[in-house]
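Revision sheet: structure tokens.
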Amino acid sequence: MALCNLFFASIPAVVGGGSSRFATWAAISGRLLGALAFAIAAFATQRRIRLTEARRVALVLSLPALVAAVAAVVAVFASQLPRGVDTLFTPEESGRPKLESDPVVLAAQLVAMVFFVVAAVGFSRKYRQTGDDLVRWLAVASVIAAFSRLHYFLYPSLYTEWVYTGDLFRLAFYVAILAAAAREISSYWRRISQNAVIEERGRIARDLHDGLTQELAFIGRNLYRLDEHDPTVARIRASTARAIAESRRAIAALTRPLDEPLEQALAEAALDTADREGTRVALELSPNLEIDFERREALIRIACEAIANAARHGGAEIVRVELSNGRGIRLTVTDDGTGFDVHALSERPHRGFGLVSMHERAVALGGQFHVSSAPGHGTSVEVIL
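Predicted:
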């Protein structure tokens, strides 16, 4: 269609031959072939085709060869072809449909309209099956093109010097195709970037697992050879265990898919943390929450930290994790542990680092962080983003 528009319409119009029989019938023939190709593409089976270099070159050259063949055939019979549309057709005469054109031209517009309707149906069905954004845009473009052909049938103005509604529909059709191509190219480069990020995250995860985590595990094993009654040794053991847990959480986060649903990633991380800390977790997570990667990771880390604190410091037997969406995404982690005095802890010069870390993560993303607790009544941590 692009080649036909260029060589059979644009160039002849510039050099003064836009209304010639050749320009009219060559353009009609080429556009009919383009509409037919659209209809075929809408129902073609998706499959991967491996082309040799020679076949690839032949495929690229086949399109200009086809356009040249159309031009040659029309040029041979140009003198015998009728004038397609009366070029004296004016806007003043367009108050109602005016089917004053060669019957073959009118039939060609109807056939092209049918081709585009078929293409719209096929692409719409394919979009429902695949969810492919490119296919959706092609379906929209096909609908617009069908309306343009219907307008050209009712008001045969395509080859006159006036601009009609059908011309605007046809322009919108090509704009839709351009938008589809631009989105597809953008999506391609975005996937390339995401794949590079995934590969780098995988490399970092492997380095953490084979390096830092193994060294921490070695330190932890050897600490058991020291005096277990020494309070310093006990604190180092606890610190080492937390470092190992943190490195494992980092490895798990790095190996998760970037587009993994929040509820799935949060459930896996919460269950893993609860199992490692020796407690149980009850989950109530709303599905299909839209959230960017940075916020998702922050919520997961806050939830895991709250679960770990509930088990280590509160002796909680069960921790409830709730995720909902109202005025922002709300994460609530509630436990049945021993609780603590929130005001007394906040007045200490070195209050719990876990609470400080959770608070800073939430505030850094523009969210709100709340902690409510009392001795003997458990603890509730709430984050709203």
